[in-house]
Amino acid sequence: MEKILDLDHKSAVTIFSSVSIERDNPRDELGIVDLENYISQAIWRLFDSSRAEAAERLGVNEVDLLLTDARVMGIKIDGSRIIDPRGFAGKNVEVLLAITMVKRDRFTEGSYMLEGGSVRAYLLSKTLKSGDAVYMEIGDKGTAMYLINPSRISYISDFGWGGGAVIDEIIKEFGIPYDSAKKFYSRYAEDNVSTHVSKKIDKIFYNSFGEFINGTVMGIRNFVKPKAGKIPPIYVKSFVPVPASMHNKRFQADRWRIRLIPTGEDGGLEDFIGDEAHEIYKELNQLAQRRIKWLIPTN
Fold first, then answer.
1. How far apart are CA 89 and CA 93, in angstroms?
2. How many domains are contained in the chain?
């Protein structure tokens, strides 16, 4: 398998969305040539509608944006999902796609380049029953948010709170070096400190964690439409230690009570690359790969 590059949201953009195409001859059965044309149209439309937003997020001009990957995640004909669409007829073909765009200077030949957060949001979506959800990833220096809904999975926003913020506060409070503060915090997150120390770090953690809640509320307010006054479930994956109590609390923010649901350890990029859907649509994905090389040359 080719090397998989797990890029952050400031180096790559992976979007999961669908494109609907009305057929000129709805009574004609679909053949491989028709499918190649529809896939080509769908890739171009999704790329064309997304590239300005992607270029702005990555901080580059559109000419420095490369479409490096396109995958067919499914095909629907007149609203019904079809495993092998060849031989079917219908008025509307809906192509479910995943496309990835990267900065030109991040392009690496012979590698799968993916926006890891978006892919993990997609893998999470497959485990959910239905409806909208928010997926968040906490890193050392910041947090990224993604919106999951039935028609699209995409980045919402990011803000500057990460695990490192708590360590900085521990350094200020106890006057200890960074490495010592990091170990101290890790032991606290693992519930491996005394009750007295735990209470002191609890206060430091949750005072700092208020910034996380504020960033979450801002993202929801600006990008998510709550239904009947209720926000969608919020799932969190942390790449830094966090106390288990974080997931047991209800945080009052604005007019909402927020609960943060842990995602667990399931769902890596290898699962996405090796997903059985890619085998089912192997021929269609080969067509898609040929198309993106024709549409967006890398030289």
1. 9
2. 2
How many angstroms separate the CA atoms of 33 and 37, rounded?
Answer: 6
Helix (H, G, I), strand (E, B) or coil at 153: strand
Q: Note whether 9 and 158 are within 8 A (CB).
A: yes
- Indicate whether 279 belongs to any domain: yes
Q: Is residue 131 part of a domain?
A: no
Instruction: Extract the tokens encoding 40.
Output: 């080509």
- Look up the pTM and report it: 0.89
Q: Cβ(20)–Cβ(285) under 8 Å?
A: no
CB 67 within 8 A of CB 293: no
Q: What is the pLDDT of residues 224-282, one digit of tens each?
A: 877 777 889 999 999 999 999 999 999 988 788 899 999 976 668 887 887 656 556 77
DSSP secondary-structure letter at 296?
S
Average pLDDT over residues 154-182: 94
Do residues 238 and 255 share a domain? yes
d(CA 233, CA 243): 20
Give per-residue burial for 15-37: e unless 16+ CB within 10 Å, then b: bbbbbeeebeeeeeebeeebbbe
Residue 267 host element (H or E): none
Selection from 144, 124, 131, 165 nearest residue 216 by Cα:
144
Exposed/middle/buried for residue 275 (C-beta within 10 Å: 0-12, 13-18, 19+):
middle
Single-letter residue type at 137 = E
Count CB-CB contacts under 10 A for residue 232.
17
Contact 159, 141 (CB under 8 A): no
Judge if 14 and 70 occupy the same domain.
yes
What count of other Cβ atoms lies within 10 Å of the Cβ of residue 151? 8
Among the listed residues 218, 78, 97, 216, the one whose alpha carbon sits nearest the alpha carbon of residue 152: 97
Statement to judge: residues 236 and 274 lie in one domain:
no
